[in-house]
Specification:
This protein is α/β, with parallel strands linked by helices. The protein is built from 9 helices and 6 strands, in the order βααααααβαβαβαββ. Helix 2 (38-52) packs across helix 3. The protein is globular, with a radius of gyration of 17 Å.
Length: 209
C-alpha cells in the first residue's frame, strides 16, 4: 500500500495562523513588485486563485514574475514555522500505517520539506512533492498526479490519497486511487471512499489496495 498525503489541513492545521500570513505575503508581493495598491493587490490575488487554482499561476501567466522568487517571498519559513503546531501522535500514527508514504502538496518544495521535518516525520516519509517538483502544475490538475506516479513508479490502484480538498480527491478517484476525505461536513460525495473527521481515524480503516 502507498499513501499520498496532502500537507496543509491534513497533516497539520494551517488555517488559523499560517494561511492568513501566506495570503498577506502574496498581497505584499503584488504591492512591492507589481506596484498595485493593497486593496487592488488583494483582489488580484483572490481572482487568480479562483481562476487558476493558485495565485502563482495567474502572476506567472499575466505578469511574467519569477515563480521561485514569489514562492520564497511568500513562504518565509522563519516567519511561518513558529506558528505550526506539532502533534506528538502524528509520528506514531504514520508508523502504524502499513506501506510507504509520500507528501503531495501544492505548497513550495522548501515549505513542504521544512514542515515535514518540523512535524518530526521526515524519517517516515519516502519523498515530498511540492510545487516545483510538480512542474508548477497544482492539484487538481491531472498532470500533477501523473508526475508523482511517473516519478515514484506507483500504480494509482495501489495508492490511498488523504486530503481535505474535495476537488483534489475527485481527480485521484478518476485515476483509480482510493480516497480519504478529512472533513467534518456530513456530505459524502461518490468519489470519496472514506470520510473521517480526524487523521487518527485512519488507523481504524480497512483498505484492500
Amino acid at each position: 500500500m502507498n499513501w499520498l498525503f496532502d500537507l496543509d489541513e491534513t497533516l497539520h492545521h494551517a488555517g488559523h495562523a499560517v494561511f492568513p500570513r501566506i495570503s498577506q505575503r502574496m498581497t505584499d508581493y503584488i504591492v512591492t513588485y507589481l506596484g498595485y495598491e493593497e486593496a487592488q493587490a488583494n483582489q488580484l490575488r483572490t481572482h487568480y486563485w479562483r481562476r487558476y487554482g493558485a495565485t502563482l499561476g495567474g502572476l506567472v501567466r499575466h505578469h511574467r514574475i519569477s515563480a521561485d522568487h514569489f514562492l520564497r517571498f511568500t513562504h518565509d519559513m522563519d516567519e511561518l514555522l513558529p506558528w505550526i503546531q506539532r502533534d506528538s501522535r502524528l509520528p506514531q500514527l504514520l508508523r502504524r500505517l502499513p506501506g510507504r508514504k509520500w507528501i503531495f502538496s501544492n505548497g513550495p518544495q522548501h515549505y513542504v520539506e521544512a514542515i515535514t521535518e518540523h512535524l518530526g516525520i521526515g524519517q517516515l516519509i519516502t519523498g515530498c512533492y511540492g510545487m516545483e517538483a510538480l512542474d508548477y502544475q497544482p492539484k487538481p490538475r491531472r498532470s500533477a498526479y501523473y508526475r508523482v506516479l511517473r516519478d515514484t513508479g506507483l500504480a494509482a490502484s495501489r495508492c490511498v490519497m488523504v486530503e481535505d480538498t474535495l476537488a483534489n480527491l475527485r481527480t485521484a478517484k478518476q485515476l483509480g486511487m482510493r480516497t480519504v476525505w478529512i472533513n467534518r461536513r456530513l456530505c459524502h460525495p461518490a468519489w470519496v471512499d472514506w470520510r473521517i473527521t480526524s487523521l487518527q481515524q485512519l488507523a481504524g480503516l480497512t483498505f484492500d489496495c
